[in-house]
Specification:
It comes from Sphingobium naphthae. It holds the Pfam family DUF192. This protein is an alpha+beta fold. The chain has a single domain, classed as Jelly Rolls (Sandwich). Helix content is 17%, strand content 34%. The protein is built from four helices and seven strands; from the N terminus they run ααββαββββαβ. It has a seven-stranded mixed sheet.
Length: 179
């Protein structure tokens, strides 16, 4: 029980820190340009077909703490991926997040374990799948419903999601096909 509480507390940090100070010479547009240069393709396969997102990746603990806090908008086909290496039980909250988000908690087999739709801005209530996950994908609130994304749908990213764009990255996620 103590271990579970510790993991949940660590996971909650993914969205609860104060904004990082920018160097004086870094403008909002230059940080936005830096984010767009590191976009990763993510494909969600649903009963309606496949849909591609180009998302930022929160790789470091600092990036995971910041997440999508203080953003005023999220692109329709944008978002952020939080890889969990090794897989773990992750818990997020919406403190200092200005817009609603859909949170997709992804099993190690690529299936969506839990989908929290329209997570409420500023909420301090933890959101978790309650099981270890390989990643969490955050999308603009309401986007999952618009596209018919549901628990059990399949997710892949990197060159595994878009083989024609295969490139050298350690972030290829190629789950086995569903049986």
């Amino acid at each position: 029980m103590i271990r579970l509480c510790t993991l949940m507390a660590f996971g909650m940090l993914a969205a609860c820190s104060a904004p990082q100070a920018k160097p004086d010479n870094e403008s909002d547009s230059s940080s936005a340009a830096a984010r767009t240069s590191t976009l990763l393709p993510v494909v969600v396969r649903t009963a309606k077909g496949a849909h591609r997102f180009d998302v930022e990746v929160a790789r470091t603990p600092q990036e995971q703490e910041q997440g999508l806090m203080f953003r005023k908008e999220i692109a329709a086909d944008g978002g952020m991926l939080f890889p969990m290496e090794p897989p773990r039980t992750a818990s997020f909250w919406m403190k200092d997040t200005l817009v609603p988000l859909d949170m997709l908690f992804i099993h190690t087999d690529g299936s969506i374990a839990f989908l929290k739709a329209q997570a409420e801005p500023y909420s301090r209530e933890p959101v978790s799948a309650g099981v270890p996950v390989a990643a969490v994908l955050e999308l603009r609130g309401g986007r999952a419903a618009e596209l018919g994304i549901r628990e059990g749908d399949r997710v892949s990213w990197g060159g595994c999601a878009v083989p024609a764009e295969r490139r050298a990255t350690e972030l290829n996620f190629c789950p086995a096909p569903a049986r």
